[in-house]
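ingest -> validate -> predict -> emit
validate: passed (alphabet ok, no gaps, 293 aa)
predict: started
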Amino acid sequence: MSAIAPLLQEASAGWMREALAHPMASRVVAVALGLGLIALLTRTARRALDRWIEHDPARYRSRKLVSFVGYLAGALYLAVVFDEQLRGLVVALGVAGAGIALALQEVVASVAGWLAISFGRLYKVGDRIRIDGISGDVIDIGVLRTSLMETGDWVDADQYNGRIVRIANSAALKLPVYNESGRFPFLWDELRLPLPQGVDLESVRSVLLLAASRASGEHIAAAHTRLRTLSREALIADTETRPQVRFALRREGLECTVRYVTAAAHRSEVRDRLATLLLRNPGHARLLGLERL
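emit:
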């Protein structure tokens, strides 16, 4: 056994000398050190941003930018170190390009979707969107997938249900994207009420207009200003942002609809405020036939 040990040590030492003498050895060591340094600097920068920036959206964008710069620096570093090998790899990929494109078509489409989302202003982090039948607030936009904090389904449409949904960015190229918080972050909402027979229509109109104006008052002027700004960029007809009341005849009887504007993020609050104003006044409730509620 004692005679074999020196032979094993000599063999292992010779193998190590050969490995270190190989042309790729120095490059592998350089890659390990370089990527480790880039990762360390990226992590340090992200931690520093967490301490310096208190505003959540700004911190998120800064962390994303630092991560992107880190990945880009790593890719450029690898390209410099393995310059000669990459030339041969490019030729090989060119020959097999058609097959690779076919196999990775969904990945390529998702990357293209990410570019469209990022530079086409489809949506950004914090926007409330609906795509492929799924609604929610955008909490992260990755290169391949967008993450949503889902709303609706088994809860009221404007409330979170607790699920995080990840949607391939390629969907943004194939399907309609409904953005409730983008260039015009307001919505028109409606409340429909069946009216009792013989009701005074003008009194109903006055009561509903007053209640809707109080419930959505803070959003009326803001929506009008944003609409005028948007009309300079796109062909949009002048639209009334003040509350409106309309009557319609149905088979069940007379129905009234009060239409009002609200910020998309506060639709549930305005609905609650409007219902509270109508029910709080006994006279208004009797006029509208709501005293039984």
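DSSP finds ten helices and eight strands in the chain.
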